[in-house]
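Priority: low. Protein: LysR family transcriptional regulator. Input follows.
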Amino acid sequence: MRTSRSSPLSRLALRQISLIAAIDDNGSLKRAAEMIGMSQPRATKSLQEAEELVERKLFHRTNRGLLPTAAGECVIRNAKTMLAQLGKMEQELDGMAGGNWSRLRVGTIMGAVPFVTEVIQRHLQRFPQTSFEIIEDTSAELLRQLDRGLLDLAIGRSSVSSTPQLYNVTTFHDELLAVVANPAHPLVGRKRVQLEELADSRWIVYTASMPMRISLEHEYRNAGLPFPSALLETRSALATMSLIQGNPNTVALLSSDVATFFVNFGMACTLPMHLRSKSDPYEVITRRSYDLPEDAALFIEELVAGVARSSLSQSAAKLV
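Result:
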């Protein structure tokens, strides 16, 4: 249902919306007021007025600061979406002076980075005036940023969300997994490596509950082996490669696209292992409540078309 001009919500001021978002960022009314240049007494009154308009309490006062209520979470999410849209509008207006300018904010999980960056390069050849902001993180964090209007689209997996009905989802690329190791690892050069032979190696893994971590846990469970307890956990591809470079006895489970990227630069070697587990395919995820900009729609078309071209090329190579 649309909010009418007579609705109390229509009387929420932009300063109140900014204050609510700032409280969430700082956990403190005082720091939030300082951030937006408002006196603390005025901020206290402004928050009270906002809660009266919403007819719900937005924050609990605790010894850890102000924590949002369920209603507060809803208002914060929408407040940050509105502020992000205003920021995007300002950037677009500033860019109009330079001609046909546009800006795309793309979030991607680590495994899809090589493919996404390749599509970005093709997009820039067609639309050189496009400015890109690229955020790499987990699917869960990317969806949080998408919810708040900080991203135009995300490449990840909607299955990690408890509210998948909020999104438009297009499946576009299957993820294959590979185990990579330091080029000096003692098992490099073998024709076949079994999981139990990595007992003395240290795994670099994603944090718990992430799809790739779950896949590795499945491999150990299917092999009847205990999952290692001494791990190096990171979400960063750069940290993964730095750790592998620093110790010849380290291994990591990566998407085959990322693994190929690092192998081609001589930074790692792929171990010949047969992995039974398969990750969920990559998805392009957008918000259903958000009108997708034309440049974002074009980018998604290129992303899906790029997968089709890649599949055709691989099929042709197999026939040669």
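The first helix runs from residue 14 to 26. The radius of gyration is 24 Å.
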